[in-house]
Design goal:
Shape: globular
Order of helices and strands: EHHEEEHEHEE
Number of helices: 4
Number of domains: 1
CATH architecture: 3-Layer(aba) Sandwich
């Protein structure tokens, strides 16, 4: 089984490589670097097997504006596992550990744009995200309450960090 731990400065190159391989693109490694460089990272974890980093997950600050109030939420993106280690529970372990850290940080909610067959097992729901104004919609845009009831009837606007390039 994989060991989940916080990233260290020594992991940065391998985190880039894991994201590049998992997504077959340079966009995700550039996104991770931009979010880290911009100071938006709340939680960044790696999964190791035999001291080799095989997975990575990132949670960044995602304010949800509701009138004059702001919910303190996180965006889960990206989450990457090397293809040869996928479907072995590593992604699930990363999500569970990351959500645990988000709870420790007393965040209100987490939002993800991801696979509708994967994230609901952790409590993510497209219905909870339905009232949020965001650049996304549909079954892949989901939210999870870390503070029960915080998104009930919520009519808020999510504010992704600039490196996402969504504003």
């Amino acid at each position: 089984m994989a060991t989940i731990r916080a990233e260290t400065p020594a992991d940065l190159d391998v985190i880039r490589a894991v994201n590049r391989i998992a997504f077959d693109s340079d966009e995700e490694p550039m996104l991770v670097d931009g979010l880290r460089d911009g100071g938006h990272v709340l939680v960044s974890l790696v999964a190791e097997i035999d001291e080799e980093v095989v997975g990575h997950i990132l949670f960044t600050a995602l304010p949800i504006e509701i009138g004059d109030d702001t919910l303190h939420a996180a965006a889960l993106a990206p989450m990457a596992v090397r293809p040869e280690y996928q479907n072995q529970g590593i992604g699930s372990a990363l999500v569970m550990a990351g959500l645990g850290r988000c709870r420790e940080l007393a965040l209100d909610a987490v939002v993800v744009l991801g696979h509708p067959n994967f994230y609901p097992r952790f409590g993510f729901s497209a219905e909870l995200a339905g009232n949020l104004r965001a650049p996304f919609e549909g079954d892949a845009f989901m939210a999870l309450e870390l503070r029960l009831g915080i998104l009930d009837g919520c009519d808020g606007t999510v504010r992704y960090a600039p490196p996402f390039g969504l504003d």
